[in-house]
Amino acid sequence: MNIGFDAKRAFFNKSGLGNYSRTTLLLLDEFHHENKYFLYSSKNNNKNFTFENTNFTLKSKTLSFLPSFLWRSFGISYILKKDKIDIFHGLSNELPLNIKKSNVKTIVTIHDLIFLKYPKLYKSFDRWMYNFKCKKSAKNADIIIAVSEQTKQDIIDFYNIDEKKIKVIFQTCNDFFKQKYSEIEKNKVINKFNLPSNFILNVGTIEERKNLLNIIKAVELQNIDIKIVAIGKKTEYFEKIEKYLISKNLKSNLIVLENVSNYELAIIYQLAKMLVYPSKYEGFGIPIIEALFSEIPVITTKGYCFSEAGGNAALYVNPENIEELGLTIKKLLTDNQLQQTCISNGIIHRKFFDKKLISEKLNNIYLSLKQ
Prior knowledge:
About 45% of the residues lie in helices and about 15% in strands. It has helices at about 10, 15-30, 70-80, 115, 125-140, 150-160, 185-195, 210-220, 235-245, 260-270, 285-295, 305-310, 320-335, 335-350, 355-370; strands at about 1-5, 35-40, 55-60, 85-90, 105-110, 145, 165-170, 200-205, 225-230, 255, 275, 300, 315. Helix 7 crosses helix 10 (about 260-270).
């Protein structure tokens, strides 16, 4: 089969959607060489994604007079037939707006509808644009892939899509998180980032929805002697965090790291006492999977998609209940048996996120459309 992909995120997004795109493409190439994969991007950035010695063909912008965003929304559709593409897969919530004109079978992966669940977290124009593209893509696609049962239900509720059209396929994480690292490698990362010997970890864009401030307050409330290492891009929300830390003379309790490679991030996971991830809402929660493969305990949010990612390996809390969050962190830090139970359960639960299993599910969907 010739399968085309919108590869913009693979090349230009370093976090969530980019990680999903890169991981998906690489696992398909690893397990299904019988297919040919065409990556459509107005340009490429090999710093984020290299594809030497793979079954990928890069298809750059051909209509030079079109701005990149218009080529992605309209131009790609006109060259799919020429490239003899059997299936086009939009990896990040959208398809070209005129994709129907190509007569190519289509799949769109929808990660979340947070812009509809929590509209106040988004600027009005951004919210409108995300919804316009996502809804149109959901209606146009032959098959929708949802990354969790929670996202599937949101698609049904908000877009009134027939559930038979939606297939749930979980994500996996980068292979860096599935390796064991030596003490020499760990010490290099410790020295590079000046990491403390005792810390809890939070991963993800530092925005209000992720509740980093609640972690800080929870640790303070229970008087827990531990540092917090947060890895992610800062937003305006960080100003609120900084003001709180200064007012409480707690600035030294938080270490924020940006521009951390996957290799370095994987080592930092293995150095952490636990992942604390009390997000209000996610489409899936990939840091939970990264923690399971890193064999550290997880505290995360009760309900929604979080139980799909964490299973019986995680401890669940109300993310807005600072006392409960603090007590759970304290309990997990002091209870060695509970730590080992979480880790052991995680080793079992992470089998649901095996990359070969995921590649087979994806390829079976492609085959079903080709018939």
